[in-house]
Amino acid sequence: QVQLVESGGGLVQAGGSLRLSCVASGGTFSSRAMGWFRQAPGKEREFVAAITFSGLRPNYTDSVKGRFTVSRDNAKNTLYLQMNSMKREDTAVYYCAASKSSYSGRPYTGRDEYDYWGQGTQVTVSS
Description:
By secondary structure, the chain is mainly β. The protein has strands at residues 3-7, 10-13, 18-25, 34-39, 46-51, 59-60, 68-73, 78-83, 92-98, 116-117, 121-126.
């Protein structure tokens, strides 16, 4: 069973930066596609960013392109999301997700493509 624990959320002013981390345990991190999703109050959970098992081919939702960067360190079983030039609309609970072990060569953007989820970390952007 894979367990995911996010950290790094908090309160930041618009234009500021945060870096989220997600530490995985209980499985083979390096073989899994990984992703970040977020859920704002009253809204559905939405895709933010994804990365393949090898760290190549990052994929982003349009609203964060050029501002967010997803990366991973397979030696540390850790996924990252660097968030820069943050906006109020980035306010949400951010979730880390892991796919089944598959060595897939493409990033996964759909919620149903992920089998494991973290508990989430709150990110609040103030004006």
